[in-house]
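Reader question, answered in our methods column.
A reader sent in the components of a multi-part assembly and asked whether the whole thing could be modeled at once rather than chain by chain. We filled in our standard form and ran it. Here is what they sent:
COMPLEX SIZE: two components
ENTRIES:
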Amino acid sequence: MKSIITRHQLLPTIFTVIGILSVLIFPSIGDAVSNGYVIGLFIGIYILYQIISLLFYKKDTYRQVTADIVSIILVLFILWELLTNRFGILTSFVYPTPGEVLLQFQEDRAELVVHLFSSVRLLVSGYLLAVCLAIPLGMISAWYGRLDRVMRPISSVLAPIPPIVLIPYAISILPSFAASSTFIIFIGAFWPIFVAALNGVAGIDRRYISSARTLGVNNWTLFRKIILPAALPSIFTGLTIGMILSFILLTAAEMIGANAGVGYYVKLATDFGNYSQVVAGIIFIGLIVTVVMTILTQLERYLLRWR
Amino acid sequence: MSTIQYDNVGVTYESNGQQAIKNFNLSIESGEIISFVGPSGCGKSTALNVAAGLIQPSVGAFKMDENIITSPGTDRGVVFQNYSLFPWMSNLENVRFALSQKSKKSNTELIKQSKKLLDKVGITGKSQYVYPTQISGGMQQRVAIARMFALDSPVFLMDEPFAAVDEITRKHLQNLLLDLWEKETSRKTIILVTHNIEEAIYLSDRVVVLYEGEIITTKPIPFKRPRDRQELENERDYLTIRKQLLQAIEGNA
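And here is the structure of the entire assembly that came back:
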């Protein structure tokens, strides 16, 4: 028998239906958002799931994972809606309902895009600066034994200093907030990438170098075609850690001294006690991080496809 | 063309002061196939690495045509047990990369030449475009052999090239190597490190037995070429030589 809903789609479909039913069965205790909005939220998640599922139409395990993750998200939304807006267990104003947060998103969408661009600009400039300096410096340090022996102890002292403590000082000594947060992100991302590049080169099996030497390659080719690709798996772990740290530092800096950016948006909302804005901001940041990390993972998968 | 000479070579490792090889004297004629055999740690790989220019002799000198060799070069092609190929390059790219190091030809020309070389060793079609990790160990060594021939060096150095593959694949690879070697107009000089006596006898003109860093026996293998494995194993001399070599190795082990 051929059914419309495939094996993978069973759980997300069930939870979408449960979500819609719970909205229809239990009366709202008054969040000033119509039921249609919340039902729209569940249907929206379900449609998004179907689109993502189509992208993975060839990979069975991915489809299963997507279905499971979507199910968990749906369950969380149902619980959230029931606890705040249906059963009235979390009624204080610090617990906005899903509908309120959704409305907030709609209201603030233009503002959020402005904050997004401000944040991404700082993130990209600080992170790229770190990448451009840390990878060559780390690799060069590993290659020259004398530099390696100096840089290892220095990096093991400097790297663990939490860059977060530098934020207020950087803001006071640097001319603008953009300059100081770029600097902080740079510091945060630099050390993990530097150490990864250092270890990546130091850990290359000498036999690859020997093999290349017997082909008569010059130093520049040796670096580009042998050392860089051989160190790349290690470098990518540094790039990932660096990116996570960059994001933490970016939002932290924005909460301390900015007048734009997603961190600033959340901080301002907290100061004014607008908690649906706070939750909307947190979810928005979660989405940004997911997109950025996905891009990085796809890049890694492409460049390390030989593994 | 390329006469190779180990002139009283000794290698002492700085790290532990151990003498890996000592009083190593050996002359190899152009076009000869020589095998180094011996128990693990006898210094056979060290002797090969001296020839490759990857290890510097502490005393004495390694010479090719009277020139002292101290670094790797394109005049010697090397194949290791593994780690010869670069896993981040496709099989085709591995060969093309080697060719591009000494040829000034256009890229399309180099790719064409690389494909031809891979065809010759039996890596055809789709296998040329995949990464080394996507094919078997035996197939990888075929690519490594293709790359070695790509360099067209007068001297080939092979460090246990067939040790990591199964018995049948090993025999195929040995035949492939001999076949390619015999087809060359100017025959390559090959130094082969192996722990397989049968392999050494089948392939070599001379087998050098090492023990604790010293040459204890050099045994000429008198069989005519091209050799047939079956015929060879039925020869009376074959068993005698095999026995003598085994005794030479085991008598000191």
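What stands out: The interface with chain A takes residues 52-54, 71-74, 76-78, 80, 83-89, 97-98, 101-102, 131, 133, 151, 157 of chain B (CB under 8 Å). Chain B is about 35% helix and 25% strand.
Send us your own complexes using the same form.
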